[in-house]
TrEMBL record, chains A, B:
This is 3-isopropylmalate dehydrogenase. Keywords: Amino-acid biosynthesis, Branched-chain amino acid biosynthesis, Cytoplasm, Leucine biosynthesis, Magnesium, Manganese, Metal-binding, NAD, Oxidoreductase. It comes from Sungkyunkwania multivorans. Belongs to the isocitrate and isopropylmalate dehydrogenases family. LeuB type 1 subfamily. GO terms for molecular function: 3-isopropylmalate dehydrogenase activity. Its EC number is 1.1.1.85. PANTHER family: 3-ISOPROPYLMALATE DEHYDROGENASE (PTHR42979:SF1). InterPro entries: IsoCit/isopropylmalate_DH_CS, IsoPropMal-DH-like_dom, Isopropylmalate_DH. The record marks Y142, K189 as: Important for catalysis. Homodimer. Pfam families: Iso_dh (PF00180). It is an enzyme of class 1 (oxidoreductase). The gene is leuB.
Length: 350, 350
């Protein structure tokens, strides 16, 4: 297969971990005789520093002209504590999602047996946990009108959703559930929000065409409890943008390491793959960042194009690295292996 | 002291647990020679069934004419799965908060040594946890304009905040931090929301008058992780309405039992005290509900009126009940004690 992959390594540890994902994809290309072409472009704080724009037009153009985007991380503390800053790195990511129409963010959450004791949660709570969050990514309060009154004393954000926006992601979520444990949980706040009531109505209606999937509802406050009280009850969780942001970061704690979690953001035409950890600026350039989440994002990329064996091989290589302790310090504080070393091991294994 | 207390027992297990809180307050009144007058009024599903209105006018009038409100619980499953229902029990609670101007919800979160092993989190994670959440309760997306388009295909909810709404709760939160570990954490989503940026600006400005309190910021998605990764880092958390709803329910899991957690909702003129557990309809009338959260809400009520010794005595009685295993089945599945028995023990101890 021939794939053109846009590489948006971004800020902080983004470039170092993405380099390992590329190394992995190159190994896969060699073994399976694929042709992967990589082209890089700036995004985030790096792009602001270079061009004044967190998502330069050429970057968006490159993504549109590519089959997929491999994304690193975004964010730099120098922009964080200035809420009045007109340009912020995160805008690059938000515009990219919107520009590419990436309306669904998919985050698998799994308890790895080898890491189960690293979780803040007890073993008996998390054993058997294996669910996926489908988070709506281009609507809701993230993209609704924002207002600040002239005198700066009143601010507002509008959360809005249309039937269509809900339908398209709901179909993806139901299909995913159909291929898994056949259970879909809609997380909302229908006892308070009008948008949530629309979600409930639309998702219930769509559920009628997926009779083999059982559908239930959970208020978001209750979901925030259930995810740590009894995470193995979930199969596919479907939710709107802001709730998904919170719930999926909460869920990322279960497995014991955020350094292992990958995500896919998909739309009708484009797809973007990124580790869920952020730019972790303190670790930048130190060769200590865990590259596995980025490598597993590459596996999700392959899976997305139907390259199941290739994706499986990466998963195997990762499991092997975990088993023999070929990991960075976040997983084993006595480890002497760095970002590059772990990436090399995985590429060599392949 | 003479206090007139409105009793809004509400739905599900509300009435049974509130009865134990009243018993406790009566014991306190006897020992300390106070005069507490109780008067009941309907709210929630019970009120809808009786009057068609989840917050009848007489109920609101009674609350306004009282020194404090003792609240039970609200919500009935028969209203939950009908998102289009025009009248819902929760509206009673929301209107009550708004009507009484209860702009701050205060929720202490503590790991009780005797219950620490009941937590889904590991002992070493939660040991030493003792923080309080200050949640804004009468603004934000809960009360902003809600719209549903004529064709029912578009819905929206407006989140808005004014400087004033933020200031009044921020002062309460800073004062609380000053009397505790002198650390305030503002939880927001300032990298995305205009309202969050206003929160950051206003809270930062107010922080200048509380130089002894250190102020830091956490994005809500990160906060959802930190609360389970390292809960003992927190002292006072300040946040807006919806984030507070999610974060405080998440935090309620830490201690190992939601049956112990009380809350206060305060405004300039009124104050309401309620257990944070919901109406738990499955347990209604079975004498199995844990009355301690309601009893501790009564202690918060006394504390609110400066009756520290009285509140301390209730805390002691509760600790004693926990120590000797005079608890309901949620805390000890082999226990044969019911709601009433635990309430009687605590009242007798006093
Ligand atoms: C960086 C930020 C804008 C982003 C979001 O809130 O969507 C991040 O938290 C995420 O979840 O990808
Ligand atoms: C019942 C519901 C409207 C309420 C809320 O969301 O505020 C509840 O969850 C709470 O936290 O008190």
């Amino acid at each position: 297969m021939k794939l053109k992959i846009a590489v948006l390594a971004g800020d902080g540890i983004g470039p170092e971990v993405t380099a390992q994902a590329i190394k992995t994809l190159e190994a896969i290309a060699e073994v399976y005789d694929h042709e992967f072409e990589f082209e890089s472009a700036p995004v985030g704080a790096v792009a602001i520093d270079e061009t004044g724009n967190p998502l330069p037009e050429e970057t968006l153009d490159l993504c549109e002209a590519s089959d997929a985007v491999l994304f690193g991380a975004i964010g730099d503390p120098k922009y964080d504590n200035d809420p009045s800053a007109k340009v912020r790195p995160e805008q690059g990511l938000l515009r990219l999602r919107k520009g590419l129409g990436l309306f669904t963010n998919i985050r698998p959450i799994k308890a790895y047996e080898t890491l189960i004791d690293k979780s803040p949660l007890k073993r008996e709570i998390i054993e058997g946990t294996d669910f996926t969050i489908y988070r709506e990514l281009t609507g809701g309060i993230y993209f609704g009108e924002k207002q600040l009154s002239k005198d700066g004393k009143e601010a507002s954000d509008l959360c809005s959703y249309s039937e269509k926006e809900i339908e398209r992601i709901a179909h993806l979520a139901f299909k995913a559930a159909r291929n898994r444990k056949k259970k879909l949980t809609l997380v909302d706040k229908a006892n308070v929000l009008e948008t949530s009531r629309l979600w409930r109505k639309v998702v219930t209606a769509i559920g009628k065409s997926y009779k083999d999937v059982s559908l239930d509802f959970l208020f978001v406050d209750n979901a925030a409890m259930q995810i740590i009280l009894n995470p193995s009850q979930f199969d596919v969780i479907l939710t709107e943008n802001m709730f998904g942001d919170i719930i999926s970061d909460e869920g990322s704690v279960i497995g014991g390491s955020i350094g292992l979690l990958a995500s896919a953001s998909v739309g009708d035409k484009s797809a973007l793959f990124e580790p869920i950890h952020g730019s972790y600026p303190q670790a930048k350039g130190k060769d200590i960042a865990n590259p596995i989440a980025s490598i597993l994002s590459a596996a999700m990329l392959l899976e997305h194009f139907g390259l199941h064996d290739e994706a499986d091989l990466i998963d195997q290589a990762v499991e092997r690295a975990l088993e023999i302790g070929m990991v960075t310090q976040d997983l084993d504080k006595d480890s002497t292996y760095g970002t590059r070393k772990v990436g090399e091991f995985i590429a060599d294994y392949i």
